[in-house]
Amino acid sequence: SRSIQRSKFCKKYLMEKNQFTLSLNLPDIRDEINPAYIQELHDLRATESQEPFLGFTDKVIPTTVIELFSKLGLTPCTWKINMFTSSALEKQTIHLDGDPTYPVKYRPFGINWVWGGCTVMEWYQYNNPELPIVTNWEEFKYIAFREEECSLLHRATLKNATLVNISHPHRVINASRDRRFCFSVCPEEAVTWEEITDLCRKHGLVRE
């Protein structure tokens, strides 16, 4: 019937719409970040190498993050907790965080809190059959893509806390003249995109 067809269409639309992001109803955590960490991040960006992120392996994790992961029955992954900052109108290289062929340190999603600036995230389809060469950056793996070899799949503006799918090549643009910040975390456990979205819905964390 027409109502069944409409229901199937709506379900398919929601699946497609939510395959890249899921807005979460979580507190703003910027006041839980030690100001010394913000200064350390600024200092890293001011170095000649312009380090793009601050790792949290030796830092205090915000209470909101610890409580969230406890509720989900997961463990915050200390080697994959990072804080980023972007200057005015800064545009990242299209990239993958980690190597999908090396699953030990690859996660297909992150929970990102953003503040300041205007965070626009883009996802791409890579149009070549083989991935570019993996760059080993300290203990991290990173794959960079040339923009002319990619096709835009989706674009979204992120606010506060968002579950983001990072299994596609992607980048962030600060579409503002104000500095932006991002605190990103993923679980220690190997969890799929489908599993984490189901967990967030089960615990009433989705911001409609």
Rg over alpha carbons: 17 Å
Beta-strand content: 25-35%
Quaternary state, please?
Answer: single chain
Number of helices: 4
Q: Total strand count, please?
A: 10
User: By helix and strand content, what is the structural category?
Assistant: alpha+beta
Mean pLDDT: 88
Low-confidence stretches: 1-16
Q: What is the helix content?
A: 10-25%
Briefly say what this structure is.
This protein is of the alpha+beta class and 208 residues long. It contains four helices and ten strands, in the order H-E-H-E-H-E-E-E-E-E-E-E-E-H.
Can you characterise this structure?
Strand 6 (135-137) and strand 7 form a beta hairpin. Helix content is 23%, strand content 32%. It is α+β, with helices and mostly antiparallel strands and 208 residues long. The model is unreliable at 1-16 (pLDDT under 50). The strands form two sheets. Strands 1, 2, 3, 5, 8, 9 and 10 form a seven-stranded antiparallel β-sheet that branches. Strands 4-7-6 form a three-stranded antiparallel β-sheet, with no helix packed on it.
Supply the key terms.
three-stranded antiparallel sheet; globular; disordered N terminus; 23% helix; 208 residues; 4 helices; alpha+beta; single chain; seven-stranded antiparallel sheet
